[in-house]
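Example record for the data management plan.
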Amino acid sequence: MSERKLGSVTYREVGQEYFDKRGLRRHAGVWSLWALGVGAVISGEYYGWNFGLSTGGFGGLLVAGVIMAVMYYGLVYSIAEMSPALPHTGGAYSFARSAMGPWGGFLTGLAENMEYVITPAVVVGAMGLLMQNIVVGLFEAGGKFAADGSVVSIAWWNSLPFWWAVFYILFVWINVVGIEATMRFTVAITVLSIVVLIFFFIAALASGKFDPSLWTNIPKGGGDPIAGGGGPLFPFGIAGVFKALPFAIWFYLAIEEVPLAAEESMDPRRDVPKGSVLALHTLVICAALTLFINTGLPGGAALFGSSGFPLLDGFKAIFAGEKLAYLLGLLFMIGLIASFFTIIYAYGRNTYSLSRAGYFPKFLSITHGERKTPHVALIAGAVVGYAVAVMVFILQEAELGAQIVAALLNMAVFAAVISYILQCTSFVLL
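Corresponding structural encoding:
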């Protein structure tokens, strides 16, 4: 194996045998890529976005959402231009390496890797908490909850870490099975998650309980008599718009993963740009309807600003009956599974591409002999993501619930913003 040094970087020549052990198989078409982009983000319409109501009010989150939509259109159209020219699995890493050299590629790939490994930990946190509540509430097993929703006792098999392990094992396994199974499941679960949203929107408007006045039911200053404020639409003033930005990002976070499927796409130069743009159009419509309709249900901004499951709370406002609410929680789970599953795909391909290029240990890019999936990268990312979730769980054990999700959400957004800056810089340079 020959080597040559260029500045601080050492390049190694590898033979065909190296790439034979790291091959992928083409299968995805434009609708598979559309589903990959929408599925990665769709849980952001189910939960997470609503924390922006408690930091910016309805008006603050609305303005922040418009800002984010404009910025994501800029990002996605930039990706749509770069991906046909650089149709590689590396996605953002490939763009940055071509524009800024090996170190620019490494920093971009590393930031995106952090985003994709942490984001499933955010989603699985909500999935575990939801399953825990469903098992106790629907089957009256696995533990007890107090009237205020606080945990009294939980069996080990209904604990959050247990459910997290179950979800990681199940959905990593489907990703390992093969690209055909992965894409079929992605399309199915994404379509189902959109159907759930459409059902929610229609049910809310037809129920007679939708009330636009609830958009502004947070008191001036957010209920704090000392704090300033700009009125009921902007209860936290203009500063609230900026504080709501990290939560408005949740409407679109991870859509940029679509180019990671370039080497598994049948026609990446046509399908990746088209799938990315169609996915963003879909998400903008879903985000707008979610913000206006969900927040206009009983409780409004005051309730959903602190809710771990705003869509589920919206269902509860529409349909009476405690048992029915838990059954609706299973519908809520569909959107969470869509994002969890598709972002597992993303961190697997991102880790694979960085490893194949020599940035990460080489064994992480080895693919399964028959299935041609990066099984080592998928398993390694699951181990790290699970460890992150458990670590935050331990640190916040006294404050279970939405706090775990919010803490991990901020970590994922921070990594994503770094990768966005570097991707847009790459576009300008290229």
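Summary line stored alongside the record: The beta strands are 3-6, 9-12, 143-145, 151-154.
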